[in-house]
Specification:
The structure holds 2 protein chains of 2 kinds.
Chain A: E1 6-17, H1 24-39, E2 48-51, H2 58-65, H3 68-73, E3 80-81, H4 90-103, E4 109-117, H5 124-130, H6 148-163, H7 167-181, H8 195-200, E5 203-205, E6 208-209, E7 218-227, H9 228-234, E8 239-248, H10 264-275, E9 284-286, H11 292-301, H12 310-316, H13 332-335, H14 342-356, E10 369-374, E11 381-388
Parallel strand pairs in A: 2-3, 2-4, 9-10
Antiparallel strand pairs in A: 1-7, 1-8, 4-7, 5-6, 8-11, 10-11
Chain B: H1 19-26, E1 31-35, E2 40-42, E3 57-61, E4 65-74, E5 88-95, E6 100-105, E7 118-125, E8 131-137
Antiparallel strand pairs in B: 1-2, 1-3, 4-5, 4-7, 5-6, 7-8
The chains are: A alpha/beta, B mainly beta.
C-alpha cells in the first residue's frame, strides 16, 4: 500500500439504539444512501460493494453476501459484491482491501456497509451466550466458562499487576468516552457519567464491573472509498488513507503471549512509518474500547503515551473534549454502543469525520491526522489506520 | 422442580490429534505434546508443530505445576451453563513446561488469589468421557 493514494470521501451512520420494529436491512440501506450522498456521487458510480457480517443472524448475513444490498439499492454498475469479515477489525480489513483494489485499478469506487441488530435481535442472556462461544475455542476455553467478560478481566488483572494502574484510572476511560458521547447525537448513552457511578456498578468478573462493559445495540454505518485523484474532485476535504499496520497474534486467548501488550507496538510502527508521521503528530485518536483495558493498552503501545500512563491521562482529562489528545470522540462502544463488527466501523467513520471536518460539536480544531485502532475476536489482531487531510 | 433447567455444560469438541490429551486426563495425568525437533512443549495440541511445522511430535506427561498468569472471579452475567457455578475462577495457567492453558482454579478462597501464585493440577471428572484439568493453589 502506498501513502495517500486512496481516500474515504463519504460517510453515513444511523444512531445506535434499540429498534425492535425495524429490520436490519433498513439500517444498512439508510447508512449506504447517506454515505453515497455524502460523497456527492451518483449511486451507479459504485462499482464494488463490500458488506460485512451481521452477527445477530446467519440468514441475514447470507443475504448481504448474496448481493441483497446491490439489488435493494438498485446499483447497476457493480462488478463484485464480496463480504469482508474479521469480527471487530472488519472495517480496517475492508478499507485495506478496498484501497488495494483501487490502487491496482480493479475498482474505482467502493461502498462498505455494516449493520447489526444485537440490541433487539437477541436477548440479553442470548448476547452473553453468543459471546461465550464466538471466537472462543470450543475445545480449550468454552468448557471452562470463558466469555467476553472474563477475556477482558484477564487482561485487566494482569495489566494492573504489571503497571500498578488503579481501578479509578481504569474507570476514567468510561467517564472520558461518555463526555464525548454527550456530544454525539448518534450515541445511545448521552447522560453524564461519574467515576463514582462506574466504580459502584455491579461486579461482573473481577476486576471488571458492569459499567466497564460495552452494551449491545442495533445500528449501522457505511463509507465510500475512491482514489486520491477522484477524491479531490468530489469533496473539499477527503480523508486520505496515509498508513496502516496490522499484526495477527492468536485465535485462542490463552495463546497470546502478553495480555498487557498484544500486537499493537508492531502494528503502530508499521502504520506510522507508512504515514511518515510520529505519534506526537496525532490530533485525534479513535481507539477500540469494547472494555477500558483495551483503550489503555492500545494507546500506550502505539506510542501515544508511555506504558502505564494511559489511565492517568484519562483521569486528568487529557482525552476529554478540549483535552491535549481527544480520544474515542464518538463515545466508543462503552457509550455510543457496541454493534458487533460495527464497533470499529463507528471509530473509522468518526476518524474520517474528524479529518473531513464534519464532527460538529465534537470537532477537534485543525484536525490533520487521526489514528484509529481495531481488533477482532478475543483481541486476535491489532489493526492501526492513519487518516489525514492531505495526501 | 420448576422453571427451565440450565443448559448442559459445554463439553470439549475434540480434534482427533488431541485425543491423547483427553485420554490422559481420564487417567489423572496431564499430557503435553513435545516437538523432538524444536525441543519444546506445545499446548494446545496441534496437527503439526506450530514452530517448525514438522510432525516429530510425541506425548509427555507434564509436572502439573505452574503459576497463575492471570485470573478473574466471575460473580455475575455468566454464560447460561455456568450461572449455577458462580462465583467461579477462570485463569490462564503458565505451566512449568513453558506453555499456557486456560482453566479454572478450584478449592481456594477466590479473594486470596494473585498473579504469579503457584498452582498444581487437579482432575475434575464431568462424565465417562471427559475429565477436565483444573488447578488449585500449592500450599506454602
Amino acid at each position: 500500500m502506498s501513502r495517500g493514494k486512496t481516500a474515504i470521501v463519504g460517510i453515513g451512520e444511523i444512531p445506535t439504539g434499540r429498534h425492535p420494529d425495524r429490520g436490519a436491512i433498513s439500517y444498512a440501506l439508510e447508512a449506504a444512501r447517506l454515505a453515497i450522498a455524502d460523497a456527492g456521487i451518483a449511486k451507479d458510480e459504485i462499482d464494488f460493494v463490500i458488506p460485512t457480517t451481521a452477527v445477530f443472524s446467519f440468514q441475514f448475513s447470507n443475504e448481504l453476501t448474496t448481493c441483497r444490498l446491490v439489488e435493494e439499492l438498485g446499483l447497476k454498475s457493480v462488478s463484485a459484491n464480496a463480504t469482508v469479515f474479521s469480527g471487530g477489525s472488519s472495517s480496517t480489513n475492508a478499507l485495506r482491501i478496498a484501497s488495494a483494489l483501487i490502487e491496482t485499478g480493479r475498482a474505482r469506487c467502493i461502498l462498505f456497509v455494516h449493520c447489526d441488530k444485537l440490541g433487539t435481535g437477541v436477548s440479553a442472556q442470548g448476547g452473553i451466550d453468543l459471546f461465550s462461544t464466538a471466537g472462543i475455542s470450543m475445545e480449550w476455553e468454552v468448557p471452562f466458562g470463558q466469555h467476553y467478560s472474563t477475556v477482558a478481566a484477564l487482561a485487566t488483572q494482569r495489566y494492573k499487576h504489571e503497571t500498578g494502574t488503579t481501578d479509578e484510572e481504569l474507570s476514567a476511560v468510561c467517564v472520558s468516552n461518555r463526555k464525548w458521547a454527550e456530544l454525539n447525537p448518534n450515541a445511545f448513552f448521552r447522560k453524564p457519567l461519574t467515576l463514582e457511578e462506574v466504580m459502584a456498578s455491579k461486579m461482573l468478573a473481577t476486576p471488571l464491573r458492569a459499567k466497564h462493559s460495552n452494551m449491545l445495540f442495533d445500528g449501522g454505518a457505511a463509507f465510500v472509498v475512491t482514489s486520491a485523484e477522484r477524491a479531490r474532485d468530489l469533496v473539499p476535504r477527503p480523508a486520505y488513507v496515509l498508513g496502516e499496520g496490522g499484526v495477527v497474534t492468536h485465535f485462542a486467548y490463552h495463546q497470546e503471549p502478553d495480555l498487557t501488550r498484544f500486537g499493537w507496538a508492531s502494528a503502530g510502527r508499521q502504520a506510522f512509518a507508512e504515514a511518515g508521521i510520529a505519534p506526537s503528530d496525532i490530533d485525534v485518536a479513535e481507539i477500540y474500547d469494547s472494555y477500558p483495558i483495551y483503550q489503555l493498552i492500545a494507546m500506550e503501545e502505539i506510542g501515544l503515551c508511555a506504558r502505564g500512563e494511559a489511565g492517568a491521562m484519562h483521569l486528568r482529562g487529557d482525552t476529554w473534549p478540549g483535552g491535549r489528545l481527544p480520544t474515542t470522540t464518538d463515545g466508543g462502544m462503552l457509550s455510543k454502543g457496541h454493534i458487533g463488527a460495527g464497533g470499529s466501523v463507528s471509530l473509522l467513520v468518526e476518524a474520517a469525520r474528524q479529518v473531513m471536518g464534519k464532527a460538529g460539536a465534537r470537532q477537534v480544531p485543525n484536525c490533520r491526522f487521526a489514528v484509529e485502532t481495531a481488533v477482532g475476536g478475543t483481541y486476535m489482531d491489532a489493526q492501526v489506520t492513519i487518516l489525514g487531510n492531505e495526501p | 422442580m420448576t422453571g427451565t433447567a440450565p443448559p448442559a455444560k459445554p463439553r470439549p469438541v475434540v480434534q482427533p490429534w488431541a485425543r491423547p490429551f483427553w485420554e490422559a486426563t481420564r487417567e489423572g495425568r496431564l499430557a503435553l505434546q513435545y516437538c523432538r525437533a524444536c525441543h519444546v512443549h506445545v499446548h494446545y495440541p496441534r496437527i503439526a508443530c506450530p514452530h517448525c511445522g514438522g510432525d516429530r511430535m510425541e506425548w509427555r506427561t507434564a509436572s502439573g505445576r505452574g503459576t497463575i498468569y492471570s485470573y478473574t472471579v466471575v460473580v455475575s452475567n455468566a454464560p447460561s451453563a455456568f450461572t449455577a457455578d458462580m462465583p467461579y475462577v477462570v485463569a490462564i495457567i503458565h505451566l512449568d513446561e513453558g506453555v499456557r492453558m486456560l482453566s479454572n482454579v478450584v478449592g481456594c478462597d477466590p479473594d486470596a488469589l494473585r498473579c504469579d501464585m503457584p498452582v498444581e493440577v487437579v482432575f475434575e471428572r464431568i462424565d465417562d468421557e471427559f475429565t477436565l484439568p483444573k488447578f488449585r493453589p500449592i500450599e506454602a
